[in-house]
Amino acid sequence: MARNRERNRSVRMLLVALVVTLAIPAAGCRPGVPALQTRTFSLSYLKPSRAESIIQPYVYSARPGAPGTMSVFDGGLTVRETPDNLDRIAAVLKQYDRPAPNVRFHFQLIEADGASAPDPRIASLDSLLKGLFRYRGYRLLDEVPLTVADGGQTSTRVRADGRSLMIYVVLDRVRAGPQGGEADLRVHLADAPGAPAILSTSLTVPLGKTVVLGSSQLARDEGALIVAVRPELLPADSASGGS
User: Fold this and answer.
1) Residues in contact with 18: Cβ distance below 8 Å, sequence separation at least 6, in sequence order
2) Which end of the chain is more exposed for a tag (fewer CB within 10 A), N or C?
3) Is 189 exposed, middle or buried (0-12, 13-18, 19+ CB in 10 A)?
4) For residue 192, how far is the Cα from the chain centroid?
5) d(Cα 156, Cα 89) in Å, to the nearest integer?
């Protein structure tokens, strides 16, 4: 009998301990509060500050009881979030963390009213120029290639009948697509760094097509300088000549 009473007492104590254990929620598993995990993402090409702005909508910092957090360091970021959100963040970073597209620009500096006979070097632009301007003739002064990475900038010199000019290029954003895509471009033409602009423009240009960026009157009032450009998207592994 004594043995049975002892066994029953042990069973009752075990049941009480089990009930108490089940009644206490595990840490981080309170009802209605999701469990969070921490994951670190390394970046190969994307700037951490840019990655932070892209990922911010996936981090719920105002979530009651279990706010999401994100910290940025040189070369990556660390996020504390729900597992499904961390998987979404990984997919988004995989989409954006790629080499920046490189675009090669072929610039042509053209003088209007600079020739009585057609210049064969710009014969392909003849109909385009005549549709935009009403000068007697057009002559190619100089042409230069420039390669710029998306978000980058660079500059070079162009010649205009003994006059040396600086052309500055900023490539703001490239959007490649099945039909060629387009790029947001800023171009500044001046005599020297810090000098007043001879021509300054910002516009979206189609990749693979020649576009006339604008014109500027010559000082002698006998014509104009015209800047044309043809942008070409380069393969992703091409080195950039921009800075």
Assistant:
1) none
2) N
3) buried
4) 29
5) 40
Q: Find, among 168, 141, 146, 158, the residue nearest to 224 by Cα.
A: 141
Domains recognised in the chain with CATH numbers: 27-96 (3.30.1370), 102-233 (no CATH)
- If one counts every other C-beta atom within 10 angstroms of the C-beta of residue 82, the result is 17
Is this structure's pTM higher than 0.90?
Answer: no
What string of H, E and C letters represents the secondary structure of 9-25? HHHHHHHHHHHHHHHCC
Angstrom distance (rounded) from CA 94 to CA 174: 18
**Burial code of 151-172, b = ≥16 C-beta within 10 A, e = fewer?**
ebebeeebebeeeebbbbbbbe
Q: How far apart are CA 18 and CA 13, in angstroms?
A: 9
Query: Which amino acid is residue 39, in one-letter code?
Result: R
DSSP 23-71: HSPPTT--TT----EEEEEE-SSS-HHHHHHHHGGG--TT-TTS--EEE
Mean pLDDT per block of 10 residues along the chain (243 residues) reads 58 45 47 88 92 94 93 96 96 89 93 81 88 87 93 91 90 80 93 89 93 80 84 71 43
